[in-house]
Amino acid sequence: MEFVLVIAGALVFWWGFNYMMGYRKDNIAMTFDERYYDTQSHVRAIEEKLRQDGRNVRYLGNREFEVDGKRYAFIERTVTMGDVPMQQTVLERMK
Questions:
Q1: How many other C-beta atoms are found inside a 10 Å radius of the C-beta of residue 57?
Q2: Which of 39, 55, 94, 95 has the fewest C-beta atoms lying within 10 Å of its C-beta?
Q3: Which residues constitute the domain of residue 84?
Q4: How far is 13 from 95, CA to CA, in rounded Å?
Q5: What is the number of structural domains in the chain?
Q6: Burial class of residue 84, CB neighbours in 10 A (0-12, 13-18, 19+)
């Protein structure tokens, strides 16, 4: 019984972590090798990455993108992974 509770707890933690990191349906999550400190260079990196992936992308301003005809909000997070800060880039689908 304890084993089942441990497994269930681990699955809930894993799901919650992924949800908070932006790995959800219709979101676009990216991690870059370089850390971006200003929005303009971060936006250029996002546009370049999406174009390399064969997507049609346009920055609309005010942290909003249009990717393949759908609107997304640009969100960035800094997450510590093994004592190293990692910048997570998420384009969250706008309804």
A1: 19
A2: 95
A3: 26-93
A4: 27
A5: 1
A6: exposed
Residue 1 lies in a domain: no
Instruction: Look up the pTM and report it.
Output: 0.73
Q: Do residues 26 and 93 make contact, with C-beta atoms less than 8 angstroms apart?
A: yes
64: β partners: 61, 73
Residue 45 domain flag? yes
Residue 16 lies in a domain: no
Assigned domain for 6 exists: no
Q: DSSP characters for 46-90?
A: HHHHHHHTT--EEEEETTEEEETTEEEEEEEEEEEETTEEEEEEE
- Return the structure tokens found at 43: 């936006």
Q: Residue 14 carries which DSSP code?
A: H
pLDDT tens for the chain, residues 1 to 95: 776 665 656 555 555 554 554 455 688 989 888 899 999 999 999 999 999 999 999 999 999 999 999 999 999 887 777 787 788 899 999 98
